[in-house]
Amino acid sequence: MPFVYIVRCADGSLYTGWTTDVARRVAQHNAGHGAAYTRVRRPVTLVFCTEVADRSTAMRCENAIKKLDRTRKEHLIEEGSFCRR
Predict the structure, then answer these.
(1) Which of 78, 74, 77 is nearest to 4 (CA)?
(2) pTM for the complete prediction?
């Protein structure tokens, strides 16, 4: 099952992505093998993760989260729910 996740970068910024293995993906980000955005903002810390039904849903949720402003993303992290199946 895929997951949508948010990591907080060392500079305090937030990065959103999706994966089927969250621990592996966070490790990739921290090793410098993740997204270009996180390479210069390491280390990253997982702050939000939710399981979704399928890849298509994961991609839609990722896109929807990326469109949120910072305040709404922080609220999402606090509440811990979005795109639940």
Answers:
(1) 77
(2) 0.93
